[in-house]
Amino acid sequence: MRVEGVVQGVGFRPYVHGLAHRLGLSGRVGNDTAGVFMEIEGAEQVIREFLAALPAQAPPLAVIERVRTSPLVPTGEPGFHIVSSNAAGRRDTLVSADSATCADCLRELADSTDRRFEYPFINCTNCGPRFTIVRDVPYDRPFTTMAPFAMCHACASEYYDPTDRRFHAQPVCCPACGPRLRLIDAEGTELPGEPLAAAAALLRSGAVLAVKGLGGFHVAALASDATATALLRARKHREDKPFAIMVADLDTAHELCVIDPVGERVLTGRRRPVVLLPRRSHAPVAPAVAPGNRSLGLMLPYTPLHHLLLRDTAGPIVLTSGNVSDEPIAYQDDDARVRLSGIADATVTHDRAIHMRTDDSVVRVFRGAELPVRRSRGYAPEPLTLARPVPRPILGCGAELKSTFCLARGQHAFISHHIGDLENYETLRSFTEGVKHFRRLFDVRPEVIAHDLHPEYLSTKYAHDLADTELTDAELVGVQHHHAHIASCLADNGEVGPVLGVAFDGLGYGSDGTLWGGEFLLADLATYQRRAHLVPVPMPGGTAAIRHPWRMAAAYLGSDAPEELARRHGEHWDSVLAMASRQVNAPLTSSAGRLFDAVAALLGIRDSINYEGQAAVELEQRADLTEQGSYPAGVTEGTALQLHGADLVHAALADLRTGIPPEVIATRFHHGLADAIVRVCRMLRETTGVSVAALSGGVFQNVLLLERTVAGLERSGFRVLTHSRVPPNDGGISLGQVAIAAASLHSADSC
């Protein structure tokens, strides 16, 4: 038998061993580069029982994708054995994501009679580090960052005992033989006392602390401490973007946020992402944690170190990426000491190396399912299964913002962890190192390299450099940004199209050389047609209009803009109006993101931004959820339908002048845009006959817009596809590129 899927490092071999023993079967089981292999010998009926039980009773971290069997001549040898791993051959095995500490380990952690009592690196085959410590496959201890730690006799006894929960748990260790925790000051000098108790005391006293986690360093502060959280924000140069909060348990989470059963399930699951949830009005959280935001990003502890730190601190803590704004998360000790010395007063660190930096994942909850915002720790590198196998290995290089890459081989698409925005050397290096690591882990040599059409994206330049140097025989495939969004949604749902794809985002390079972002595409995985879009408007100052949303309000409103808006920007106002009217240094864009920017600036919510999408995020957060009104928007018919976003902006202005509160206007704008999307889709259905809609692009992270749009489409008889496994934002672009490149190969093969 051969079992394929996530079956290494998850307790699968001891599970098979125990199952075979219970059923009285003989044979052997082992790991190799393709997964788990076994030979089972016994009565035919008993073997059938074994086959039926194998997937049904598998370990919690195992993901069985396929079981293949073939007959062998019986040997008559007694007993069932676990045999040594075989590292030869092509690597087809899958690597498990890092998993939160299991209930069994938590019980031992709290048991004063257990030898691992309060040991911050406790783990077993059902939990603990995986992807972040793996150097190579098969997943055995010598190929992980645990290799330097020789097991003591007690740990070795567990490791080699097939009946033990820690049998072949590669990170197994204890205080006698495993990693050691240290608390150091900003100069690297070790501080006296028990590290976690001393660290918790520092947090309670108002200090900022760095903490080495699974995939990198975090920085922490007491979430209720206004001075400490403001200090952390200033030191990180992160002016407004909300911080995540770690809470000790679900009861504490309920004190801070309103959490439904789905939110509870996601919070407490083995992946432990940051979950964006509605905050309670009197939640004891400092203003600097999430300014201007009525949601909080909560997560529960996912390592024993976090459990112990939260217990000793006795209160929720901010736990945010260990970096200066726009840099990748620090993950190596020496690098962290340099980069975090100006941020953290002290650091909790240890001597278990992190091989692959991996940031926390972030999700929202939509209609009973996860809506990923950032797919990373706890999810990567577990693959998505494609609807059709790719004919040749493919690398999708992604876009520029929220960068990921994707390697595809056979039916598997391996989407990387979140890399960040490819706007500096450190992030680009993290990207290139990640590609090399994935290629080695999954034994993929790309024969096709898919990339965005934008010539200045670093991911596009990387694709061309790779084809020019190392992979000179690889085929380069340029993929239009918004087609990739829709293809990502199709792949997320295991579908091939055709669909009416609504791709709303900030910006993407259009096939006509202009900047798109409010698109309606008739698309499948191989082709697309641009059938409708938002009416293009100028972006005065180009990228300056992204950083300063008031420029988009000027572009949309011109001389009709309210005096207060013009007065706020004084001498710059007239020059920006001139740029827009003359279309000088003001490229046209159909961007939905820029439409949100214009309304946010008009309402005085956000004139300038400090992080990508900030104006749109804050506009959603300000909306009055009890309001039912909606603004109308016209549609002009032609070769492609044109949706008049300016109608929504002018309607908002009219209400503002009559004294309607900004919260009500924000809601009416959201509703109006959603209703307009539904109207355009109905019009396109009449000419195309397609009644399936796919919603993608970063704008559809907005749950208020998404819910109204989905509900309206469903009432109109559409079947609606949304994202649940990869983000609708640019973090899903690499998967879409792979899906499109694969479909093109299939089309070429069939010709």
| CATH architecture assignment of the largest domain | 2-Layer Sandwich
**CATH fold-level label of the largest domain:** Nucleotidyltransferase, domain 5
Low-confidence stretches: none
By helix and strand content, what is the structural category?
alpha/beta
Largest sheet: 10 strands, mixed
- Strands of the widest sheet, in order across it, are 6-13-7-8-12-9-11-10-14-15
The tally of helices reads: 23
At the fourth level of CATH, the homologous superfamily of the largest domain is: ATPase, nucleotide binding domain
Count of extended strands: 28
Q: Termini distance?
A: 37 Å
- Average residue-wise pLDDT: 93
Number of domains: 4
Name the CATH class of the largest domain: Alpha Beta
Strand content: 15-25%
Q: How helix-rich are the residues, as a percent range?
A: 25-40%
Radius of gyration: 27 Å
What spatial form do the alpha-carbon principal axes imply? globular
What can you tell me about this protein's structure?
It is globular and about 85 Å long. The model has no long low-confidence stretch (mean pLDDT 93). Helix 13 (481-492) packs across helix 23 (733-750). It has 751 residues and is an alpha/beta fold. Strand 14 (362-366) and strand 15 (369-374) form a beta hairpin. Helix content is 34%, strand content 21%. The strands form five sheets. It has a ten-stranded mixed β-sheet, sandwiched between helices. It has a seven-stranded mixed β-sheet with strand order 25-26-22-21-20-27-28, with helices on both faces. The chain has a five-stranded mixed β-sheet with strand order 4-1-3-2-5, with helices on one face. It has four domains: 2-82, Alpha-Beta Plaits (2-Layer Sandwich), CATH 3.30.70.100; 181-350, DHBP synthase; 383-493 and 733-745, Nucleotidyltransferase, domain 5 (2-Layer Sandwich); 499-723, ATPase, nucleotide binding domain (Nucleotidyltransferase, domain 5, 2-Layer Sandwich), CATH 3.30.420.40. It has 23 helices and 28 strands.
